[in-house]
Design a protein that fits this description.
It is a single chain. By secondary structure, this protein is an alpha/beta fold. The protein has a single domain, classed as Vaccinia Virus protein VP39 (Rossmann fold, 3-Layer(aba) Sandwich), CATH 3.40.50. It is 28% helix and 15% strand. The protein has a seven-stranded mixed sheet, with helices on one face. α6 links the parallel β4 and β5. The longest helix is centred in the first third of the chain and has 25 residues. The radius of gyration is 21 Å and the shape is globular. It starts with a helix and ends in a 6-residue tail after the last strand. This is Methyltransferase domain-containing protein.
């Protein structure tokens, strides 16, 4: 075998290996990075770690870069999140939205919600972790919601896999990335893919897959064979594209943004806002 034959053969083998890896990653839903080792099958117990972080926050024990109870991507003071805050404020003010349901609520005292310019909505937030609701209620005990641009605020313990309150807009930020595909499907079946619609519009905000995988969601035929990665338990992690299997929602990508300067938040894998306008078949 001559040197050129060896070089060409090696190059072809490397190319086929690369293609095989990416094709498998596109059409197979298991992944190597989705199991954090901290997940479980009971959502209530799996997210108890956030209650522990809230206790640490109240004692001032969380480091500045990670001071938001829900994680670095939820810090209202983060410069990286300002483009998203500005975008969301403009989105809300440009529409006739009088009521919002936000699930899961996360932690208002340390979270991203304080950075948004709300525009007079009645705001309902639900979270499966009672400590989040306890701290959120305490935060507003001596504050007027209008201080943050809201007409009213309501915080309730609730499970997003069950029926949620009705509103004009449903927001879910950085939540479905931490629950398995089967649970996301149940959430969609119960609250989004229903007729008559419970919400006029929905904003799904989450980490998206790398571009080499994410781009196929825009290709009509290919999107039906592309699959989202799955995570094994609640509080594990996987990137989401709601346009592809097993969801196949008719969402539009409205905005992308970085959530941190950390190396795992480079622009090849930012967060995306996927928008859905709900309707009934034939309407």
């Amino acid at each position: 075998m001559g040197p050129w034959t060896l070089i060409i053969s090696s190059a072809v083998f490397a190319l086929l290996s690369w293609l095989g890896y990416h094709i498998r990653s596109v059409i197979v839903d298991n992944c190597t990075h989705c199991d954090t080792g901290e997940g479980g099958q009971d959502p209530q117990k799996s997210f108890e770690g956030y209650a522990e972080r809230a206790e640490q926050w109240s004692r001032g024990e969380l480091p500045d870069w990670d001071v938001a109870v829900s994680g670095p991507a939820s810090k209202a003071e983060a410069d990286e999140l300002k483009p998203f805050f500005d975008w969301l404020g403009s989105f809300l003010s440009s529409r006739n939205i009088s009521s919002i349901v936000d699930v899961s609520s996360g932690h208002w005292p340390s979270g991203w919600q304080r950075g948004v310019k709300w525009s007079g909505q009645d705001y309902t937030r639900l979270d499966i972790t009672p400590k989040m609701i306890e701290d959120n209620r305490a935060f507003f005990k001596d504050k007027d919601p209008q201080q943050y641009g809201l007409r009213s605020v309501t915080f309730e313990v609730g499970d997003m896999l069950k029926e949620l309150p009705k509103a004009d807009l449903l927001i879910t930020k950085d939540t479905i990335i931490h629950i398995p595909n089967w649970a996301i499907l149940k959430f969609l079946e119960t609250n989004v893919n229903v007729c008559p619609p419970r919400y006029r519009e929905v904003l799904f905000i989450h980490d998206r897959p790398p571009y080499w995988k994410f781009r196929w969601g825009a290709v009509p035929l290919v999107r039906h064979i592309v699959r989202n990665w799955d995570c094994p338990g609640f509080s594990d992690f996987h990137e989401i594209d709601l346009r592809v299997a097993p969801y196949h929602l008719d969402v539009v990508n409205l905005f992308e943004f970085n959530s941190s300067t950390r190396a795992d938040r480079v622009m090849d894998n930012p967060k995306v806002v996927q928008y859905m306008k709900t309707s009934c078949p034939g309407s």
